[in-house]
Write a structure and sequence with these properties.
Elements (H helix, E strand, L loop, with lengths): L17 H9 L5 E4 L14 H29 L3 E6 L11 H19 L5 E8 L28 H12 L10 E4 L7
Helix pairs in contact: 2-3
Length: 191
Amino acid sequence: DCVGYTYDISTTYENTDIFFRIEKETGHEIHGLVNNAGVYIQKPVTEYTSEDFEITMNTNLRGPMFMSSAYIRYCQARGCQGNIVMTSSNRGLFGDYGPYGISKAGINQYVQGLGREMIGSGIRVNAVAPGMTASDINGIRPDGDLYTRASKGQRVIRPEEIAEVVCFLLSDRSRCINGAIIPCDEGDSIR
């Protein structure tokens, strides 16, 4: 049984009681956090504004960092184990000039650093790094044409394919995995 909550992480960074409130509403301990928020602004390198940068970093990097900290405090207060899964991007696995790719590279560093920091605590931290995915952020419908020249596999990844990997990382079947960034792009990030 899974309940999802939507929360604007771009404007509230240190809401320390959100997980306690959700536990109270549902009557269940929270066993996992999926940081899936994302903003994607694509422009020529010379046209990015500081506002583009702030919006992207606040949503894609700062928000997940502080939500993760709040979740870790929650797990520590409850004495429970937990899982954090970040949604990165294959754009964070190779050089990129825009705020989106830079924010996702930051997420990758954070996942590895936090994963190492949490070893032995009962809290695991991992990420998925999707390639071109049928989603609102890319303007591609999952039931539409999934052909693309933009990726080596020439197809858009379906959201349920990414969700299966996230579910695996949240499960006990992956308890030996910590600090990993799993590309979900048919190998397109291999350069």
